[in-house]
Structure prediction request, 289 residues.
Amino acid sequence: MNGLPRHSAVAGMFYPAEPARLRRLVADLEADARKRMEAPPDPASVIGLMVPHAGLVYSGAIAALGWELAAETRPDTIVIAGTDHQAWAKGIGLWCDGPWLTPLGQVRVNDELASAIASLGEPFARDDRAHDGEHSIEVQLPFIRSLCPDVRIVPMAVSPRLRSHARAGEMLGRLLAERKARGERILLVASSDMAHYPRARVCEATDAELLEPLLSLDGDALLELEGSVLTQDRPGLVCGLCGIDPVRVTLAAVSVMGATRGVLLGSATSADAGGDPGRTVGYAAVAFV
Prediction:
């Protein structure tokens, strides 16, 4: 481990680079989430989450629903399974080195837990390069820095080249369950957006369909359904979940850790935030309990 920090890659693009502007945006999103949250699950029952990862002006309102609940679980460490959009990693690449820098300050890495996960062996491995330029974990950090300022993270880049999602999730779930049984407060989070680029109505319908197996924690059914909807006449649709790989790993892991279902905290499309209704992206926040 070289201990070098990871510098922001998408500040000024996916969220404001100026600390004051970013702080105001995050505070507004959090305040809106507190108003919108209706009958959330008991924080003590929450084992994991799924949150979206687009530009904060588009997905931040939904992501904030998940992070407000995350803060109430009072975690010591948040393990984040992020999408490896560039497929840098062979399987699951872990950052085990220095802190991640943000305009709101640094977020420390739990290097001991990260190293323990990497030591599980294939498909887990130390791989800082897998995080180069990637936004799926980075865009969560303003919320973490604001709501859980003392928490440490374990960043995991889950590649679309991964071929053993259930096995990887079970390996991860067993390790995290053992740690939690010893008193460590660990939350597992998957970072993924949902349907990409159809019209708003098609996006909403596609997301609703895909949420059914996701809320049932059925990663195999989720993969099969995504493949099915992509063969149907849904103009513009290029994927059902851009982070289906980290989500499938997370579903397997939280199942081992004792979760039995997902609870939808909220959903929307980019059109709800002022984006083009003819070319939308879907967002959902889910708690696994």
